[in-house]
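Reopening closed ticket. The problem is back. First fold of the pair:
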Amino acid sequence: MNARDLTHEIVSDVILKHDYANLSLKKRLQELELKDQALCTALVYTSLQHHRTLRALWSQYTHKQPKSSVAILLDVACAQLRYFDRLPDYAVVDEAVKWCHSHAPYAAGMVNAVLRKVQKDPHQHLKGEDEFDTFALNHALPTWIYRLWIAHYGKDKAQEIARALLNPAHMSARINTLKITKEELLKDETIEASQLSSYSVLSSDNLVHSAYVAKGELYIQDESSAYVAEFAQAKAGMNVLDVCSAPGSKTAGLAISMENKGHITAVELHPVRAKLVDELMEHLGINIVDTKCFDARFLDKELQEREYDLILADVPCTGLGVLRRKADIKLRISPNQLDEIEGLQRAILDGVQNLCKVGGTLIYSTCTLNKKENEHQIQHFLSKYQNYSCIEERTVFPQDYNSDGFYMAKLKRLS
């Protein structure tokens, strides 16, 4: 198995079987030698991130759509021609044709001809149906998402979002101040402080396999996500409810902010994902978290506790703020899903609002950029529950800090 063959198989599984790219890579990367793993990872994410652009690039040179396996081969090959400067063009074409001889000999001539045409101008600007479609097409974005962002944030900001979400995601981690101080970490010249979250650091190195993560002094989390716990202002001794808590990174952020003093009830629907929360807490040395498997929509019936100082509802969402990390979202999402997800978010808010004590705080957050799921959701909540007031709202756009896009609102229960 070489890097390009494994890339083809993983991209095929993501597109045709709806697998998750990160999970497929985690499961299968060990099939490659270490020196090839970085190339495979980069090819997978680039092929998925730019899928719409790549398919339009080569489709203009075909008379009919080839079989899915050949189409994916062309996607991956064009990703190398357009975005990978260090790979010789002749080698990319040659490898693709060799793959055809082994797996689809009938397509070898077509693939060779198409790639040679792409090779002449791989960076060309593609034309869509109109100016909106053209911009979206060249930024590998469904046009309806681009139009939604224009409607919600204006054209200039919509274009900034689209460009930012094509930039490579940087390495960010949250500091576990139960084990190490920020000052100690910053003595390491490969680490720098985040400009967004006071408890996050950035690194040019891959921290995933670092001693810091192994010892639980850091855990991998985007700085926008880490900022949610900071925004919540959890304090030592608080009684906290965290719903939709898996995999536990925000739960951990709350517990660390609380100096591991007080109590957190972490609610997660699925037992397998709840186990991830428990494993992270154990690794980080956190012992104030009690994990429960409940449906957050019906917590009013499940939990006897009615006096939470702080509730965090980091709800399921369309994920439009994390497209640079989860490009497969663009392959699956449709406008029809918005109504369904908005209904689920409202049901979760309905399920937790009565559990907050008077004077307590309810935090609502999403990793999407869509006012229907964000500002409008809060407006609807406040119109329904007039015993709540919105204290603060914040949207973190990906272009602000080269981070994920996030929305958060802080609500106070008045009576």
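Second fold of the pair, where the issue appears:
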Amino acid sequence: MLHSTLKMLNRTEEVLSSTLMICMVIIISAQVFCRYVLQNSLEWSEELARYIFIWAVYFGASYALQKDKHLEITLLRHYLPSPWQRRLVALAYGCVLFFCLYTAWFGGVMVIDIYASQLRTPAIDIPAFWFWLCIPICFALMALRAGLKLWELCLNPQSVLPPTY
């Protein structure tokens, strides 16, 4: 059950991030066409493209954490014996987990404050909390990923460490 749910979550993040990037490219292309060919800019396109980009990046960051594709400084890990390498990687995942939980919590508080203030976006006039929701949602997803990585690393001594490049 958990495995199929995580597999669905992986696919959802991958498709959502890619789809959002495609939408952003289409919106920016339409803006360039309207500005230079039709001599009439779209007021809303830059702001919407920016918000879409932010959502795409945060979903992509969660997906990258699941695939161990984030940047990592591995110099120290190369020179440590194997048991210490595992401890160092576990410490790194623990720090990522703490940071993501902290950011998700305070991102949620920020979204509640923005919702209460009824702040609206300047160009597209949509409630701004919709665009700030990406912080608690995506950092919670990253915390889930880091927690699962830490759990697997601590419970399964045969688990493979993230690759070093």
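Update: turned out to be a display glitch only; the data is intact. The chain has a mean pLDDT of 88. The radius of gyration is 20 Å. Please close again.
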